[in-house]
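Hey team,

Sharing the Probable GTP 3',8-cyclase run so nobody has to redo it. Sequence (309 residues) first:
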Amino acid sequence: MTVTDTYQRPIISLRISITNRCNVNCFYCHHDGILPQKYEMTPDEIHRIAQVARDIGVQKIRLSGGEPLIRDDIVEIVSKISSIGFKDVSITTNGTFLDKYADSLVEAGLNRVNVSLDTLKPEIYRFITKKDYLQKAKQGIIHASESGLYPVKVNMVVMKGLNHDEIWDMFNFCQENGAVLQLIELLKTENCPDNGFIDDYHYKMDDLEEELVNRADKVKTRKFMQDRKKYFVDGGEIEVVKPMDNTQFCKNCTRIRITPEGKLKPCLLRNDNLVDFIEPMRQGKSNEELKKLFLKAIENREPYYDKCS
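Structure output:
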């Protein structure tokens, strides 16, 4: 039976950040400081977290980071989680290790993958990430699609004057390689480097969405994904992810999170209501006691933007 919060939102998804280490340094990414590898949660600890989550009705697990594939035990982690019997197990990655791991991850039980890739131009990729891994990322996407992961989604943060003119090139790349393109509009949060960052790079996608409506063969609204729109164009798919500063995002939120430090995070945009999970688990608390910590975190959930109605 699925647990709901006090606003009647079902908790069906758990995102576990298994590391905050990363092999790229995207200039728009907010880093809270690198947790030393020796303090990261072990595969058995991640497995137990997933077990307790399943006991309260969570149906989907997503692994993220940092860069989750930077962990050399990633296949073991996925295998342990998938053995529990979730409806869906997925990963968000920058794709640079996918060529190496895609087949093994599929065999371990991974269902799908989201790959962060903002550009197809080497010089722009280097500017954004401070690395020369574009070809590795592209090959990772291609291999992921060939390996049977489905869907493979490419997350493109659209930035004015930097990559906004590449949207249709990226769509063609995705279409050619069996991937879905997700266009992400920059969000201004307290974690942004400064207000000038948003002024410089924010690209409002209203005109683009109007073009998509005119070009699309079909438009689908994803109710439990913040009412975002999916456009079917020329046999391919484009999904538009609007900023989270709206009541629809909160109204349809069905996700809770685990930080790399092992704390339950009830809200993406808040850090003042975390519930420690890893220490009680390491102290030998039973699954029933740990389940109460999940329920406490769920009780702490409230809409960041206005009230759900």
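The two ends are 24 Å apart (CA to CA).

Ping me if you want the raw files.
A.
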